[in-house]
Write a structure and sequence with these properties.
This protein has 374 residues and is mainly alpha-helical. 66% of the residues lie in helices and 1% in strands. It starts with 14 loop residues before the first helix and ends in a 5-residue tail after the last strand.
Length: 374
């Protein structure tokens, strides 16, 4: 197996094929909320996550096996840190989705896109970004009202906390990976293994053992768990690594950014989540606010890069030799999250990347990479 590389190369792959593959990832992520809701109960969350990440770790291990010989102590250490934070995200998300609708869960978690830049002190935030964030937050406020104005439900609040912790996950990955040579495949595998270890311990402490839960699961529940582990995690990782060499980061971000839309559509059409005028307006505000926030952040990032390049050019010593000008290497970022993959796999400003967080968000001195959304 040829090792995964993020070096930009020219391929003859049909652009539509790349787009469809990325949309398939977004669709899988969007379906993950309903899949989790239908396959887990509050009492079995830790055992459920143990099964899900056990399967995912094995699947991803097979994908990155040729690269494991190069595993470094730094990758083990930081991958473990990422995994510990990811475990908190997944616990909040999974408990949250058992207490709210799949549509609400998918839409609220997309706030990672606007929360991440607000928490990252290193990010220069244009004034218009705050307006976009306000629109998205207002949308959450409306979405959590079920036909009348009342306090948000526990599930909605847990998903909101999950979005905040996922943003922290994205920021930590971004800062740690800057200037460090970390392999995305190996670090992601260590991250999954670390999260799995946390879930195993929590499952044992709560008294609901993995074996007991596994024997009680129906064939339908097993199918959903395998879907979450392989389609939403391993498949998403492979596609993002593959697509990163065949399309632009902006296109990856836009396509993976359709995840909350798929979550809402699946929640309403498949699960029969209730549709109210207030809820529809709220969903529209969330989608609009997060989309515009992503665009504003991207434009600000490009402006900063241009200014930095011009500053370097103006201060660089003149040379009579004709050396080629420096070039920038755009690498896809997703966000699960994004951002999440914006790292999830879910790309934040993918993605992540979710990162997201996606989801994707991670950069070394010579390259960017995203961790798949989980």
């Amino acid at each position: 197996m040829r090792p995964i590389t993020l070096d930009p190369v020219t391929h003859r792959t049909n652009p539509r094929t790349v787009d469809l593959a990325l949309l398939a990832v977004a669709l899988a992520w969007g379906s993950s909320y309903l899949a989790a809701k239908e396959s887990v109960t509050t009492a079995a969350v830790f055992a459920f996550l143990t099964l899900r990440f056990g399967i995912a770790a094995v699947g991803l291990g097979l994908v990155v096996a040729p690269r494991l010989r190069g595993l470094t102590r730094s990758e083990v250490a930081w991958g473990s840190v990422f995994g510990a934070i990811l475990s908190v995200v997944l616990v909040l998300e999974t408990f949250g989705v058992t207490k709210t609708s799949a549509a609400n869960a998918g839409l609220i978690i997309s706030l990672t896109i606007v929360v991440t830049p607000l928490l990252d002190r290193r990010t220069r935030i244009p004034a218009t970004f705050y307006w976009c964030a306000a629109v998205a937050v207002a949308g959450v406020g409306l979405l959590t009202q079920n036909g009348g104005f009342a306090a948000p439900g526990l599930g909605d609040l847990l998903m909101l906390f999950a979005a905040v912790v996922r943003s922290v996950h994205v920021i930590v990955i971004s800062r740690v990976s800057a200037g460090r040579a970390l392999d995305p495949g190996r670090v992601t595998l260590v991250q999954f293994a670390a999260a799995l270890a946390v879930f195993v311990v929590l499952s044992a402490i709560t008294g609901r053992g993995v074996v007991d839960v596994a024997t009680e699961m129906t064939a339908h529940s097993w199918l959903l768990v395998v879907h979450l582990a392989l389609s939403c995690t391993v498949f998403a990782f492979v596609v993002q690594m593959w697509a990163a060499r065949r399309t632009s980061a902006a296109r990856v971000s836009v396509l993976l950014g359709t995840e909350p839309l798929w979550a809402a559509v699946i929640g309403v059409t498949v699960a029969g989540d209730p549709v109210t005028v207030v809820g529809v307006v709220g969903a529209g505000l969330i989608l609009t606010g997060t989309y515009l926030a992503r665009r504003v952040e991207a434009q600000a990032g490009r402006a900063d890069q241009t200014a930095a390049a011009e500053a370097m050019t103006s201060t660089a010593p003149r040379s009579s030799s004709s050396s080629p000008p420096p070039t920038t290497v755009p690498i896809a970022a997703a966000a699960r999250s994004d951002g999440v993959p914006e790292a999830d796999g879910r790309p934040s400003s993918a993605a992540n990347a979710p990162s997201s967080v996606s989801s994707i968000i991670s950069a070394s001195s010579s390259r960017r990479w995203r961790l798949v959304r989980s």
